[in-house]
Design a protein that fits this description.
The longest helix is centred in the middle third of the chain and has 47 residues. The two termini are 25 Å apart. A two-stranded antiparallel ribbon has the order 1-2. It is elongated. By secondary structure, the chain is mostly helical. It has one domain. The C terminus is likely disordered.
């Protein structure tokens, strides 16, 4: 067998769908975990600087942020290992097995393992859909804040109207109702929106939201490719046809 035929045989056994999904999952999780972790740190700094003067007003929020940061560490480790396992399962269920051993065989254990990955990935995609929706909440908060600041910049000639435009962190559950000041209004709010900390935090949350969406797409791709592979293993394996996803 020549070098070209050998290369074609190797390339023919690559699970391209699983490979693309793995790359998407790695990039999505990196965005979500890295940007989300830093965005939480910057959020605590913004709340401490502009919305709360007393430590007791935001101590609960600080503990919640710290808890979510630990969760992010766990998510990063879990998805790294799980994506590698899914990629390995994709290689297992491709025609590389047939090309290597001469006949395509799938054991009962292999089919059981493939079906387990399908169920786990499907459940994980459903759970991650909730994470994706949850990650939109801080983006919504900062979007409203940015829109209010834009309105203030337009109405700079009417100070009375400007002072009535506020963003209240207590309304979003970030602070208790007795927190002081708890909100920012008028030019104070406009100055906050112009700070580097605010702009960076907003962009980080948008990046984390994008990363969550990419991860969801990767999980859906895994689910589709794994389901296809399992179907071929189950129904076409005896004919020597190997899946390629």
């Amino acid at each position: 067998m020549g070098c070209y035929d050998c290369c074609m045989r190797c390339l023919g056994g690559v699970p391209y769908c699983s490979l693309v999904a793995t790359l998407l999952c790695f990039s999505g999780i990196a965005l979500f975990c890295g940007c989300g972790h830093q965005a939480l740190t910057e959020t605590e700094r913004l709340i401490e600087t502009y919305f709360a003067r007393n430590l007791q007003d935001y101590i609960t929020l600080a503990y919640i942020i710290q808890y979510f940061q630990y969760v992010i560490y766990g998510l990063a480790s879990f998805f790294f290992l799980y994506c590698i396992a899914l990629l390995a399962e994709g290689f297992y269920t491709t025609s590389a097995a047939k090309q290597t051993f001469g006949e395509f065989r799938s054991t009962m254990c292999g089919r059981c393992l493939s079906s387990s990955f399908i169920v786990m990935t499907y459940l994980l995609a459903v759970l991650w859909l909730l994470v994706f929706a949850f990650s939109a909440l801080p983006v919504y908060f900062f979007y409203n804040m940015d829109a209010t600041c834009s309105t203030i910049d337009v109405l700079t000639e009417t100070p009375a109207s400007i002072n009535q435009l506020c963003v209240d962190a207590r309304q979003y559950g970030l602070l208790p109702w007795n927190a002081v000041p708890g909100k920012a209004c008028g030019m104070t709010l406009s100055n906050i929106c112009k700070t580097r900390e605010y702009q960076m935090t907003y962009n980080l949350y948008v990046a984390a939201f994008t990363g969550a969406g990419i991860t969801l797409l990767a999980l859906l791709t895994y689910t589709v490719s794994s389901t296809y592979n399992f179907a071929v293993l189950r129904y076409l394996g005896r004919k020597g046809i190997g899946p390629r996803c």
